[in-house]
Amino acid sequence: MVSQKGGITGILLLFSIPFPKAIAFTIIFRLATLIFPVILGTILLLIFYGKQYFSREKNKLIQKQHSWHIIFILLFIIVVGSCLTYFYVINFPWIKQFDAFFYGLINGLPHTKLMENVIYPFHRNFLPFGAGFLPSYFYIWILTFLIFVYIKKRSEFKWAVLSIIIATFIGIILYKFSQNFLFRERPFTLLPNNVDEATKKGLMHWPSFPSGHVRDTMLYSLLIAHYFPETLYFGIFFTLFIAFCRLFEGVHYPTDVLAGIIIGYLLSKVTVLIIKEIQLLFKIIPNDQIK
Predict the structure, then answer these.
(1) pTM summary value
(2) Domains defined for the chain, CATH in brackets
């Protein structure tokens, strides 16, 4: 009879097989766990939507209950998904190869004076304040958005301000979480790069995973699109541009910016749901009109 200790040792040895030589079961297992948060979240969302969140009335789906459970599920996916993704990006050789290849490809592009001038406002902090809080371009972007909301949709101005505050607050909490528990060194500490010494010194102690610039750009782009839907495609393009800038300047891995895009998208959904819950709580909008 195999002892309990021996059985545990066997299991540990099975999952410690080097990835390139892994058997089919191990490959399938690792791929499955890689997307586990998404699968779990999708199943839970379907259960809640199917049993609690909707009811059929006159052949239409009408929302009947609060969406706090959806908010907590999304936050769960963000946190657990971030932890699992962090584990994989720092441990799996094929992900490291992916990062190294595309990092070298994009950061190795010619750094002409024109490119540096185009990217400068989105890479450097050019305002005399807020350098350690948000990148400079965010202040101008958000202020412009709020001015337009005040002019075009004044009745929604307070909700636009509140959504920015909530999104920023959640973003800060996630940043602190990454800084303390998911700290990934910047790629220029390990890979050949074109990063200047001043940038290296300034970012050495900031976590690389996920990209805060990309995450917040996606987050605010989608929040703006919530109030002005016609800006959606511009917001997506702008997010991809910022992702390119971070890779071009050599301060993030490709997986950092990909994670930033996904987390920013989920955070935008969380923020909108929280705003709607607050409106519902104070009976500002009818329950069956929330989309």
Answers:
(1) 0.72
(2) 96-289 (1.20.144)
